[in-house]
Amino acid sequence: MRTEVAKTLLLLLGIFVNPRGHGLAPAPFATQTFGVSLNTGLNNQLFTLFLVKEFEGRVIGSTPLTREQFVLQAQGLVPSVANPESINLFRKYEVDVCLPEGPDTAARFVQDCDVFDNLWKLRFWDYPFRLVEGQHPGKGWAEKPDAPSPRQLLLLTEYGMMRASDLAWGENAFHLLRDVGDSAWVDNYRKGY
């Protein structure tokens, strides 16, 4: 009887400790990524940049970043929980307007990215802040004064943004930045071809 009990215990122990995956699966964990919102954010920017905590396809937390923090972390120049491999995410997601120009582009990094200066245009048709004399940021791309039209919102759903106040995060954030720098995409957004 003792040998049968010992065999049963060894069998059960083998099931729970078996290195071939017959034991309990590891628990999933939250990951960090970057995000972009068209809401007014830090330093009166007409957009907000974030570190986003994601779990099972949903945002469970976010921390605002300055434009400089976002750029440096996305380039891999500053350690980031959203970019632990320190790779240039602008290069990975082909955000060409955020890459340096010239023959030595692989080794150099840009300190800023002008595409952020155009994010407000997705939401407004006129610049919403009072301008200093001599400033001319141009016209926005929205078909309505304070928001994208339903057709334009439909285009923004490609980036996970169901409303103008939603967040594009992960790959979607970089795809949005890439497309805002693409004149053909902007033309379609503005005119609705």
Walkthrough of the structure:
By secondary structure, the chain is an alpha+beta fold. It has one domain. The chain contains six helices and four strands, in the order H-E-E-E-H-H-H-E-H-H. A four-stranded antiparallel β-sheet has the order 3-2-1-4. The N and C termini lie far apart (81 Å). The mean pLDDT is 84.
Inertia-based shape = globular
| Number of structurally distinct domains | 1
Coarse structural class: alpha+beta
Report the total helices. Answer: 6
Average pLDDT reading: 84
Gyration radius, in Å: 23 Å
Q: State the distance separating the first and last CA atoms.
A: 81 Å
State the strand order across the main sheet: 3-2-1-4
Which band does the percent of strand residues land in? 5-15%
Compressed to H and E, one letter per element, the order equals: HEEEHHHEHH
Task: Count the beta strands.
Answer: 4
User: Which regions contain 5 or more consecutive residues with pLDDT less than 50?
Assistant: none
Largest sheet descriptor: 4 strands, antiparallel
